[in-house]
Design goal:
Elements lengths: L12 H12 L5 E5 L6 H15 L3 E6 L7 H13 L4 H8 L24 H20 L5 E6 L10 H12 L5 E7 L2 H9 L11 E3 L5 H12 L8 H10 L4 H13 L4 H13 L3 H9 L2 H11 L8 H11 L7 H11 L6 E5 L2 E4 L2 H8 L6
Parallel strand pairs: 1-4, 1-5, 2-3, 3-4
Antiparallel strand pairs: 6-7
Helix pairs in contact: 1-2, 3-5, 5-6, 8-9, 10-11, 13-14, 13-16
Length: about 375
């Protein structure tokens, strides 16, 4: 059965071939890509790169680690197994998982917990290490090159996944001719830490570069597709204006096109206003804000207001005022920055020594509009 195609997908075959040719030349076995969320990275990986790799004779494995941030090892092993021997996946996990019968005193599982799930996180992580090695050994038997695409790979930078990252690195190190790896992520800061920190498992293992973003050609192709289904075609100038107003973000532009198509009689300006209002729906930002501690909120407020040196004396004085305490030194913003740039939150990214930017410009605007941390 053929997979349905998306008529709105903007294909980038040349870019896919460029990445594959880099691997085929044998000069590198891995590379890293970063782009903030909603920029079309994952769509390209799944709909352009992976099909091109299969056509070129690769086995292709894909996993998005955001789907299960607590268990990246199991996600990786499953992705590899699905690519190299999908029919044996069930038996593979049965042999690796701890039998439920070994629970103390024959205790029953809580209502709603599936019997195949591990109850102990440490045990699950421990099982992931042999799972990765077993999956890589299964790939050895396939006698084909494998392209492993790890989306949101910065999850592996979290301290609790260090054993999984070391295991993956060790397994890939001895298989560079046969397994090519593309690490992709939405946090430039976390990915850079993954590949540039000397103590990190993947230190110096892959060059990191920005993902080429979509531009005018994408807008033109979308306008042409729209013309084939709309009673009132959209003018290219209006589309380009909307794309710029939406910070050249492909997913937001898709929202705009969808709105215009459904309410063509209202015109392009109303479609843009509606989309911008949808973007500024603060419900998700309020939830994120409430989950942060007061120090993190204060640091975000300073950064959103344009403060560059978040560790300096002037910033510390502002933090004292925001937090209502005199006990503020450079360690407070440093600790907050580590959390805000870490793989769990990914709210900010380091662009230079002591200089940071928001991962989401819309969130920056929302924070900047606030006056207090409460």
């Amino acid at each position: 059965m053929s997979t349905p195609t998306d008529p709105w997908h903007f294909p980038r075959p040349e870019l896919a071939q460029a990445y594959l040719q880099g691997f085929d030349l044998g000069l590198t076995s891995a590379r890293g890509l970063f782009a903030r969320r909603r920029m079309g990275k994952s769509e390209f990986l799944k709909h352009d790169l992976l099909p091109a790799a299969r056509k070129a004779g690769y086995l292709a494995a894909y996993t998005n680690l955001w789907d299960d941030t607590e268990h990246p090892g199991q996600a990786l092993a499953t992705a590899i197994l699905l690519a190299v021997q999908p029919k044996g996946l069930g038996r593979f996990w049965e042999e690796l998982n701890t039998p439920i019968s070994k629970l103390k005193g024959g205790a029953k599982l809580p209502l709603g917990i599936d019997a195949s799930m591990e109850l102990d996180l440490a045990a699950k992580e421990k099982a992931a290490v042999p799972a990765i090695q077993a999956a890589l050994q299964a790939a050895d038997k396939a006698n084909k090159r494998l392209l492993l695409v790890i989306d949101e790979a910065q999850v592996l930078a979290a301290p609790q996944h260090k054993a999984v990252a070391h295991s993956l690195r060790a397994g890939l190190d001895i298989r560079k001719p046969a397994i090519k790896v593309l690490f992709a992520g939405s946090s430039e800061a976390a990915l850079r830490e993954m590949f540039s920190r000397s103590a990190a498992p993947f230190y110096n293992w892959a060059p990191l570069e920005p993902f080429p973003l979509l531009g005018r050609e994408f807008v033109e192709a979308t306008v042409r597709q729209l013309a084939s289904v709309a009673k009132q075609p959209l003018k290219l100038d209006d589309a380009l204006k909307a794309f710029a107003a939406l910070k050249e973000t492909p997913e937001f532009f898709r929202w705009y096109i969808e709105r215009y198509l459904m309410y063509q009689q209202q015109g392009p300006e109303q479609a843009l206003l509606y989309t911008q209002a949808r973007l500024h729906d603060a419900s998700s930002y309020v939830r994120v804000w409430k989950e942060l501690n007061r120090a993190d909120r204060a640091v975000l407020l300073l950064a959103a207001s344009g403060v560059q040196d978040l560790y300096g004396a002037a910033a510390q004085k502002q933090l004292q005022s925001q937090l209502g305490t005199a006990e503020v030194n450079a360690s407070l913003p440093r600790t907050s920055i580590r959390r805000l740039t870490g793989p769990k939150l990914q709210l900010m990214a380091r662009v230079d020594h002591g200089a940071y930017r928001f991962e989401d410009p819309e969130f920056q605007s929302w924070v900047a509009a606030r006056r207090t941390i409460d």
